[in-house]
Amino acid sequence: MTRQKLVLIGNGMAGVRCIEEILKLRPDAFDITIFGAEPHPNYNRIMLSKVLQGDTPMSAITINEYAWYEERGITLYTGETVTGIDTERRIVRTDRRRATAYDKLIIATGSLPFMLPLPGIDKPGVTAFRNMKDCESMVETAANYKRAAVIGGGLLGLEAARGLLNLGMEDVHVIHNSRYLMNRQLDPHAANMLQQELEKQGMKIWLDRNTERIIGRKRVEALQFTDGTRLPVDLVVIAVGIKPNVRLAIDSGIEVNRAIVVNDRMETSAPNVYAVGECAEHRGMVYGLVAPLYEQGKVLAQAICEQETEGYRGSVLYSQLKVSGVDVFSVGDIEDSQLSTMQMSYDGIRRTYRKIGIRDNRIVGAVLFGDSGDSNKLLGYVKQGADISVLQQEASTSGGAGGGTSEYVSGLSDSETICSCNGVSKGTITSVIREQGLETFEQVRECTRAASSCGGCKPLVSALLQCVLESGDEDAVQATPLCGCTTLSRERLKDAIAASRTSNVREAMAALGWRTADGCTICRPAIRYYIGSLGRLSASGGDLVSTASLTAATEIDVMADAASDSGAYAALANGTYAVQPRLYGGVATAEQLRRIADAIERYRVPLAKLNGDGRLELLGLSAAEAAGVSQTLGGPIAAYAYGRPVASVVTCGGIVYERGAVRDSVAVGAALERRLERLQLPTTVSAAVSASPLHRAGSLVRDIGIVGVPGGWELYAGGSAGIEVKEAKLLLTEPDERAAVDTVAAVLQLYAEEAMYGEPVWQWLDRVGVVAIRERVLDPRSRRTLLLRSQYEAEQPMAIRGECS
């Protein structure tokens, strides 16, 4: 069978998704050629803001690597633009004088940024924010200049402004011609809440302002507004919208209105020529969101593969996104003038807002701010035009307006869509979780593509995963014990110890039916931690271990693992021990360095080296030598441990020496280290403090990250630089260093009390949810209680870990 020649113009998200659908339906039917104007493989344009922030490489947002094309026999030409289509001869021509024949042609040229017709718009220092080249231009400018203005207060403009703050620009202004931000997606109340959050982060917001001209000689120097005022700037980013990229279609004689006109099968006016994505106009509508474009791609794939299809009938427009760390969702009609009535709720503590628009007793719109967990449920209500009785049913069953995400996802049928962007149903996700034994959100995302585009459905996917794991498949849950010494899982072990009255490890093992008398290095530390965290651990059982001094270079298990081991220090792989001098905030005095040098010489330390955090480690010591080194560096006090420590807090150069610094990271790092050094945790926790949004201390890949910004301190949690690299999530912003340190102490106290032993912060965060943790930390009563318990832990007798003081 002769293969047909299929050509795709445009290597973006919509076009390549259509190709993926075609390969599912008829993998051997076409010889496929793709032309992409950008010099990159297919990437997630939604994630460009992450690249702009400087902490995400291009590889991290790439959807399909070059190898993907090669494995499927697809010919890919990147950095090559199609300049003409001969619809009669069925040939496309490029700017490299290449002529390629086709049997079927898909146009997916996307859109172009709308550039305002302002005097001076072509000056150096003026850019759009649409592709990788724009990102690179903004990063380069931010390295040399400090003042920026973003024209446009929509999603794109706000993400650009946030990225420029992260790049270290000192003055970042957002110019918007409406009376409130994101006026197409939010109502005034939600927009006001968003503005307050952004101003805390350091943005300066100018509302109801119109730009008249861009001023400058050799490059941009200022903006002039229509009221005559001027704003000095070094960089201007235009983010006022997009327009369909249809010049190629017009020049080729294909019918164009606002965009390329298509029917329900995505066919254009030219035979065997189709259009999909932001360049296509269907029934008078042009869509710029991911979900409608993927829906179009699925219909087009069916049409090209000559399969029956109901055709594309249009999509309900909605926005589900994260604006500068804040969850936002909007769908349908939300303006008061469009509604008969509405249901509203506002939580000033959690900083959440919910509004459901109602017309003629039907749900016609919704807006969520701060917590988008109910977004898919409300999207379904709007699509169905659901009667308001569903809200009354929720209130009667949940005691509130919204109900829980877990309850909602449990009630969905298997055919209901969980990820609208990628069209992934509940049944698909559930089946994959069970068949492949998935246990983490990341595994589900990788195997199903759910939440891999905009990420807005992550709360639903996480809730569904938890529901499946906790569902009636009890045998499967029980089949994953903590270790071979017991049948209990780590969750059930924690609950069992809490319910028991045991006060030492051996007593707990006997009470819980342990298979081995002494347990193992997996279960013993876990039991000890759970008992210790309840305040019941008894020294008489030999479980409170003297830790003498030090933060270990490797695992603390041996240090905290009963008297049968040496008990004093953490052992390395070869049976020797390690000492890491405690230098608060990474700062060392001459006297401290002399003491370290004396200890190295006196005890003939085999190896002194800097670890990955830039901290000094003294390796290869015997237990006795480690004790001697500890005494030389500051002298240990009798101390007891049952958990893991906070590792030394990493800091950058600080306000004086760090380029672009806006806050004193060294002082905060030292204060944080002193506050947390005695806290007992489920696993070793890393922390870093950066003086600016450039994250010079690696604050986005730490368990806890504090970042200095013009408006105060941003607090991040859940990062990891281990085997599975994780980017930390923004929890909240605090105005001063004392509040920031207190908040971190409260978060880690909550983690210490509620996480499983050995569970890293990022897993705990994914399991519990950022909003739930934020709620506990921001609630005044809960916060005070956590801080009191944290202070109590700090005042208990613990070791001075080689302070060198």
Would you count the extended β strands for me?
37
Protein structure class: alpha/beta
Which sheet architecture does the biggest sheet show?
A: 5 strands, parallel
Which strands sit side by side, in order, in the main sheet? 3-2-1-7-19
Query: What does the overall shape look like?
Result: globular
Structural description of this entry:
The model is unreliable at 399-403, 473-479, 544-571, 635-640 and 796-805 (pLDDT under 50). Helices cover 33% and strands 20% of the residues. The radius of gyration is 29 Å and the shape is globular. It is built from 27 helices and 37 strands. By secondary structure, the protein is an alpha/beta fold. It starts with a strand and ends in a 10-residue tail after the last helix. The strands form eleven sheets. The protein has a five-stranded parallel β-sheet. The chain has a five-stranded parallel β-sheet with strand order 9-16-10-11-12. The longest helix has 18 residues, at 737-754.
